[in-house]
Amino acid sequence: MSVKFKSLTWKQTTLVVISALFFAIAIFIVEIALVGTSARNQLTLSQQELLDSIEHPAANAVWALDDSLANQTLTGLLKMEYVASAIIKLDDGSTFVSIVHPGNNDPLIKNISQKLFGDLQQISRTLYRPSSFNNNNQTQVIGTLSITYNLQALTNALFSQLRLSFIATLARALLITLVLSILFHRFLTKPIAQISEAIDKIDPESPDEHLLPESRSHQDDELGLVTSKFNQILIQFSQTQDKLRRMATRDPLTGLPNRTLLLETIAVSIQKAKAHHNSFYLLFIDLDRFKNINDTLGHTTGDRYLQRIARILERVVGDNGTVARLGGDEFVILADEIHSPLMITTFVDKLLLQLNMSLQLNEHSIHPAASIGISIYPDDGQSAEDLIRHADIAMYSAKASGSNKWAFFKQQMTERAAVRLRTEASLHDALKNNEFQLHFQPKFNIETGELVSCEALIRWEKEGRLISPMSFISVAEETGIIIALGRWVIEAACKTLKGWQTQYNFNLPIAVNVASQQFSDNSMVPDIKQLALRYQIAPHLLEIEITETSLMNDIELAISKLEQLRSAGFGIAVDDFGTGYSSLSYLQHLPITTLKIDRCFVTDLPHDSAIASTILLLGKQLDLNIVAEGIENEQQLNWLKEKKCQVGQGFYYSKPLTSQEFENLYIKPNNATIKRI
User: Fold this and answer.
1) Are the CB atoms for 309 and 331 separated by under 8 Å?
2) pLDDT tens readout for residues 592-641
3) In angstroms, rounded to a whole number, what is the distance separating the alpha carbons of residues 101 and 148?
4) Does the first or last residue of the chain, that is N or C, have fewer Cβ atoms within 10 Å of its Cβ?
5) CA gap 163, 151 in Å, rounded
6) What is the pLDDT of residues 261-283, one digit of tens each?
C-alpha cells in the first residue's frame, strides 16, 4: 500500500499556523479577562463619581419638592455614557421623578452582559436633607436616588474593542506564520529536498559515486553534519561492499573461488559450450585422511595443508580451467578447456601424481592422497548443480575403491544414491512406526552342546517382508540414524530379558552389537545403564559387542567407556576380532570378557587354521571367553572342539529365529536358569 506524499513545507506551515492560532487565542482569552476586569473597575469608579456629583442637586430638588429641577437633573444623567434610567423616590416610597432612556434588547448580549456586569447594573444612594436647612446638623432621610445602566451597550462597546484587538492579533500571527514558513523552506525544507533527490540518484552497486551535495550555508550546523556523516557512510559502505563481494565469491582460507563464484563460472561455461557444441569436464576432489591430519597435527597445520594443496591444484590446472574450494577438504576443478576423454584421463593422472608428492609442514612430512569424481557436460547434467552433484557421487564411488582413485559418473550411481535417500527416509519412518524387530541366534557350549546365551540381531519388516540388514545398516551408519537404531536394539533386548523373567522365570544372557558411531556417542554408556535399571535387568545378562575398529579409533576413550560398563557388571565382547589392526599391547588393557572369532576365519577351517589358532591361544593367555561365529559344518565344529573353543554359533546350530520361535525351541522346554561358562 503506497503512502501519499505530503510536503514538509506544508506540514511546517500547518504546524506554525496551528501553533500561532493557539497562542493568539490564548492571548486573546487573557486579554478578554484583563479588559473585562478593567471595564468593571472603570464602571465602578464612574458610578461613584456620578453619584457624588448628582447627590446634592437631587437632594435640593427633593427638599424643595421642585420636580422641574429634579427632571432637569435626571435628564442630565441620561446624557452620561451607558445610563439607561434614573428615578428619585421620596422617603415614603412614592416616585417623585423618573426618566428612562430607550434601548435595544438583544437576548444574547443581554445574557452575556448580565454575566459580566450584572452586579453593577443598578446603583443607589440615600438622599438627606440639605445641610443648609438643618441647623441642628442632624441628618434626615428625604428620598432615594437610583440609577440603572444599559449593560448591553457597555458589552457591545467592549466587544467592539476586543474585535479589533483579535483581528490585529490574528494578522500578526499570520504574518509571523508566513515569514517562518518562508525561512523554514529556504533554510531547511529545500536543502532536505535536495538531499532526498541526491539519495534517489545513489547507485547501490557504486554508492560512493553519487555523494550528497554539501551546502555552504549548512557547513557548520546539524544539517551539514548529517550530510557529511552520510557521505562518510556511503564511502565506508562502498568499501565494505567491495570486501563483502570478495568474501562472497572467494574462499577466505585459500583465496580460491567459492561455491557461489564456481556456479556462476560453470553457468558461463555451459553457455559457451552450447554455442560451440563442445563438452567439458568437472572434477570433484576429496582429500583422503584429512581428518587424521587435523586431529593429530592440529587445525593450524590442517589449514596450511589446504593452502598448499590449493596452490598445487592451481599450478597443475593452469590455463585449462578453474579451481574452486567448496569447503573442508573438497575442491572442484572446472576443466572447460579439455574436450576429450583421453585428455581428461591424462590430466587426472598428472594431477594425482602432483598431489601425491610429499609435503613438508614444519617438522612433519605429509603424503597427500585424493579421490576424484568426474562428470561430463552435457552427458551428466545440464546445470551447474547437477554436474557438481554427479561428480560428487562419482567421487564417492572412487573412494570406495581405495585411496588415490578416480571414477567417471555413471547413471547407475545416481540410481543407487536415490535408493539410499529413500532408505534413509524409510528408516526414520520405521523407527516411528515400530517396524523393527529382534531375531535371536543361540550360542552353545561347544563341548557339551548346552545353550549358554544368544545374540540379538535387528531385522526390518516392511510391508510384510523382511529387509536384510546389509541393505540398510550402511545407510544408517552414514546418516547417523545408527545411534537411535542401536539404542532401540538395546532397549528391545532389555524388554525381552524382562519378559523372559516375568513370563518364564528364565534368565539367558543376550549379546547386542554396538556400531562405531554409537560407541563414539557420549550418551552410550548412560543409556545402557539407564535402560538396564529401568527394566530391572541384571547387568551380567547384557553383553555389549564392540567391533575391533571401534576400539582402535580412540583407544584411550574406548578403555574409559569399557571400564565404566565393566565396573557396572556388563559383559563386553570384541566382535570380528582379527579383521582390524588391534595392537596387542592395548588389548591386554581392555576390560573385555569375550573375543569373537570372525566367520571369515571359521569358514576356512580346518584347512587354514593359523589365525583361528592364534586367537584361541591369545584368549587363553588373557583368560577370555572365545566365541566362534559362522559355524556351518561338523568339520569346523570338531576342529574348534579339539582346540578347546568354548562357545559357538552359526547355521550348523541354528539360523537367527524370531522371538516366538526362540522361546518355543529354547525357553519353554527349560525350567532351569542357564549358567554362564
Assistant:
1) yes
2) 899 888 888 898 888 888 888 888 988 888 888 999 999 999 999 999 99
3) 10
4) N
5) 18
6) 999 999 999 999 998 888 999 99
Radius of gyration of the chain (CA): 56
C-alpha cell at 364: 612433519
Residue 6: which pLDDT band, with cuts at 50, 70 and 90?
A: low
Asked whether the CA dihedral 291, 295, 299, 305 is positive or negative, the reply is: negative
> Cα 267 to chain center, whole Å?
32
Q: Which helix (H) or strand (E) holds 89?
A: strand 83-90
7 CB contacts (<8 Å, ≥6 apart)?
Answer: 189
Q: What is the pTM of this model?
A: 0.51
298: left (phi over 0), alpha (psi -120 to 50) or beta: left
CA atoms within a 13 Å half-sphere pointing along the CA-CB vector of 169: 19
Residue pair 162/32 in contact (Cβ under 8 Å)? The answer is yes
- The amino acid occupying position 276 is H
CB atoms within 10 A of CB 132: 8
Which residues are registered as beta bridge partners of 453?
443
Has residue 675 got a pLDDT over 50? no
Amino acid at position 405, single letter:
K
Nearest Cα to Cα of residue 186 among 8, 39, 354: 8
Helix axes 151-184, 107-117, angle to 10 degrees: 90
What residue type is 43 in one-letter code?
Answer: L
- Calculated CA dihedral for residues 548, 552, 555, 558, nearest 10 degrees: -40
**Alpha carbon separation from 602 to 3, 469, 609, 632, 667 (Å, rounded):** 84, 22, 8, 9, 28
Distance, in Å, from the CA atom of 235 to the CA atom of 239, rounded to the nearest integer, reads 6
pLDDT tens column, 203-244: 666 666 667 666 666 666 666 677 777 777 777 777 676 666
DSSP 3-state of 134: coil
Q: Determine the Cα–Cα distance for residues 377 and 400; give it in Å rounded to an integer.
A: 24
The 3-class secondary structure across 564-587, one letter per residue, is HHHHCCCEEEEEEECCCCCCHHHH
451-462 and 465-467 beta bridge pairing: antiparallel
CA distances from 331 to 298, 385, 398 (A): 21, 15, 15
Determine the residue type at 323: V
Q: What is the pLDDT of residue 361?
A: 82
- Burial annotation 318-332 (CB, 10 A radius, 16+ → b, else e): eebbbbbbbeebbbb
Q: Which three cell numbers stand for residue 527?
A: 543409556
Q: What are the strands, taking DSSP E only, across 589-643?
A: 594-597, 625-629
Question: If we measure between CA atoms, which residue out of 532, 600, 525 comes closest to residue 566?
Answer: 525
Asked if 282 and 388 touch (Cβ cutoff 8 Å), the reply is yes
User: What is the percentage of the chain residues whose pLDDT exceeds 70?
Assistant: 85
